[in-house]
Specification:
InterPro entries: CoA-bd, NAD(P)-bd_dom_sf. This is CoA-binding protein. The chain is 34% helix and 17% strand. The strands form two sheets. The chain has a five-stranded parallel sheet with strand order 2-1-5-6-7, with helices on both faces. Strands 3-4 form a two-stranded antiparallel ribbon. It has one domain: NAD(P)-binding Rossmann-like Domain (Rossmann fold). It has five helices and seven strands. The protein is an alpha/beta fold.
């Protein structure tokens, strides 16, 4: 058993530059439940000055933390710098295609979310990729 995570492959400077350059983050898998990690990360990113756009396809979830919820990335009506994914790894490739389609700059997979096919799709579409890391943890650690 290794103590290393997939996310360890990304140099701190690379991660820091991404977090310093993005302003608008689409958070896919955002939850209205304050006990869920995606909700805590959304609130933390908001507190650090990012514009966060919650994405959740459930029709009964129309607002999270006072923000309107989008049902898909394609439904977002403004440019998105980063797509932060709180969904199972097997959904990442499809989300990578959607992130390319909306011309995001970064595809970010949360802790334990790794899919090399998705990374290849995103990179081929011109996106930077980070997987198996949490932006909230990285902001606390590197800033």
């Amino acid at each position: 058993m290794s103590d290393h995570r997939h996310g360890d492959i990304y140099p701190d400077e690379f991660v820091r530059e991404i977090l310093d350059s993005v302003k608008t983050i689409a958070l896919v898998g955002a939850s209205a439940n304050p006990n869920k990690p995606s909700h805590a990360v959304l609130k933390d990113l908001l507190s650090k000055g990012y514009q966060v756009l919650p994405v959740n396809p459930r029709p009964d979830v129309t607002e999270i933390a006072g923000l309107p919820v989008y049902d898909t990335l394609a439904a977002i009506d403004r440019s998105v710098d980063m797509v932060d994914v709180f969904r199972p790894a097997n959904e990442l490739a499809g989300l990578a295609r959607e992130a390319v389609a909306i011309q995001a700059r970064v595809l970010w997979g949360q802790l334990d979310i790794v899919d090399e096919q998705a990374a290849a799709i995103a990179r081929a579409g011109g996106l930077q990729v980070v997987m198996d890391r949490c932006p909230s943890i990285e902001l606390a650690r590197t800033h």
